[in-house]
Write a structure and sequence with these properties.
By secondary structure, this protein is of the alpha/beta class. 44% of the residues lie in helices and 16% in strands. Helix 1 crosses helix 2 and helix 5 (72-88) packs across helix 13 (308-325).
Length: 344
């Protein structure tokens, strides 16, 4: 393995000059800089990052922590984070917090490995946890955290606007008897049998999407034809109970359904195919999120698309700028758009 001394000898300069070039610090004339770059390339020099971190207390590592690594939405966000890390010279580690214990394990691991910053996505982070991380020199950015945390920069999705757009889209196409299937909205204590970890705290997403949906109907002088509490996670075979599906299919007045995520939409579409309900002729379906594996297969599900890759890029830029400047960034609100499909 080549050292700085090897590179300096090859380039005919001092070790200090090579160090300045490698770390992009100090003044080095362009001719000398090019000679050092050539020597670095010839010797395939790679800095010893572990040794460097011991001296500088910088690891150039950030973490991305989410609640379900199998969810394709998180994969797209992660790709956006990785793109920025590659541009800015940072490493990204991915951590899956599928339980409260899992979240605590992730936090302990980040502290032990001198992670410089972390992006928490769709979790129920509290202020005490953020203070603890900050005390260990770890900067925090959140994406759609369940609760608002003062002084913690966040990327927020405009879920209210997304629900509003979904209803408008259906109404503009002549539907007036529209049902809605959402996740758990109430704050009832306790965990339901078989309930996913994220379903124990993710209420704001459903409240906001439902609020936007109802606002659109109200503006058009309409009432929801049916409101159903479904299951919004990918771990469940069906996101709607047999009883609720029976209520839906037995009401001939209902011509459209807004499903508040694509998991619910794909599940409903499967039930319709199973029972011979034509989509969209008998029942139109629109989902929310834009999860490619769920909406891209025929028939393609119409969906409210969130800019997943861009969310990841924004979060990574926000976090790295925060790390390097120690200035708390402003919050960012992202917007969605409708992707047409075969189900409306």
């Amino acid at each position: 393995m080549s050292t700085l001394a090897d590179v300096a000898k090859r380039a005919g300069v001092s070790v200090m000059t090579v160090s300045r070039v490698v770390n992009n610090k100090g003044t080095v004339n362009e001719k000398t800089r090019k000679r050092v770059y050539a020597a670095l390339e010839e010797l395939s020099y790679r800095p010893n990052l572990m040794a460097k971190s011991l001296v500088t207390r910088r690891s150039n590592t950030i973490a991305y922590v989410m609640s379900n690594i199998s969810n394709p939405f998180f994969a797209n966000v992660s790709n956006g984070i990785e793109a920025v890390c590659a541009e800015r010279g940072y490493f990204r580690i991915i951590l899956d917090a599928t339980s409260e214990k899992g979240l605590n394990d992730c936090i302990r691991m980040m502290i032990e490995h001198q992670t410089e910053g972390v992006i928490f996505h769709h979790l129920n982070l509290d202020e005490e946890t953020v203070r603890s991380l900050n005390a260990d020199g770890i900067r925090v950015v959140t994406i759609d955290n369940e609760r608002i945390l003062a002084g913690v920069p966040e990327i927020s999705s405009d879920d209210f606007d997304g629900g509003y757009r979904a209803a408008n889209y259906l109404i503009d196409r002549g539907h007036t008897k529209i049902a809605c299937i959402h996740g758990k909205i109430s704050d009832a204590a306790g965990v339901t049998d078989g309930e996913d970890y994220i379903e124990t705290f993710q209420r704001n997403i459903w409240r906001n999407r439902t609020g936007g949906f109802l606002k659109s109907l109200e503006e058009h002088g309409l009432e929801p034809a049916l409101m159903i509490e479904g299951r919004g996670t990918v771990k469940n075979r069906s996101s709607i109970s047999k009883e609720d599906f029976r209520r839906l299919k037995n009401d001939p007045q209902i011509t459209a359904v807004y499903c508040e995520n694509d998991v619910i939409a794909r599940s409903l579409l499967g039930e319709c195919i199973r029972y011979g309900i034509r989509v969209p002729e008998d029942l139109a379906i629109i989902g929310h999120d834009g999860m490619d594996p769920l909406i891209s297969y025929y028939p393609r599900i119409a969906s409210v698309i969130q800019p997943q890759h861009e969310i990841g890029r924004l979060a990574a830029e926000m976090l790295i700028n925060y790390i390097e400047s120690d200035i708390v960034p402003d919050n960012v609100l992202t917007h969605s758009e409708i992707r047409e499909g075969d189900t409306v």
